[in-house]
Design goal:
The protein is α+β, with helices and mostly antiparallel strands. The chain has helices at about 5-30, 40, 45-55, 60-70, 70-85, 105-130; strands at about 60, 90-95, 100-105.
């Protein structure tokens, strides 16, 4: 005896639900979780520092302060954290009688930024595909 319309409909609905759950699971595994982002770069000021340095060979402390619209203390604390993990290099020198501080992005910092940007792109793609 043949199957009823209701039975066929339930089976089709079940298959659709399974396919949707599988697609959702696939999307969920391709997008990085926010906890996977590098916390040293994910913070707003530090992301600004590495981003500004990525498009400039080097920047002075005052240039960074102006670009990021932050205070001396805030910038120095965040720059120091990036220095400690070798994402940025700091050079201090005198220009005439004035002390100058200049920052540049290190190869490790460039790789970390590239990794972070790839993770963000994957997250954006996953969000758009849902």
């Amino acid at each position: 005896m043949g199957r009823s319309y209701q039975t066929d409909r339930k089976a089709a609905t079940s298959r659709q639900g399974a396919a949707q759950r599988t697609a959702s699971a696939r999307r969920a595994t391709t997008a990085p979780a926010p906890r996977d982002f590098d916390p040293l770069i994910h913070e707003q000021i530090r992301l600004g520092i590495v981003s500004a340095l990525a498009v400039n060979q080097s920047l002075s402390f005052n240039d960074l302060k102006h670009i990021l619209k932050t205070t001396d203390g805030n910038l120095s604390v965040h720059a120091r954290k990036l220095e400690m993990v070798d994402y940025v290099a700091c050079r201090k020198f005198f220009q005439g009688r004035l002390p100058k501080t200049e920052y540049r992005l290190t190869p490790a910092g460039r790789r970390a930024l590239e990794r972070y940007l790839n993770q963000m792109e994957a997250l954006i793609q996953a969000a758009r595909s849902q």
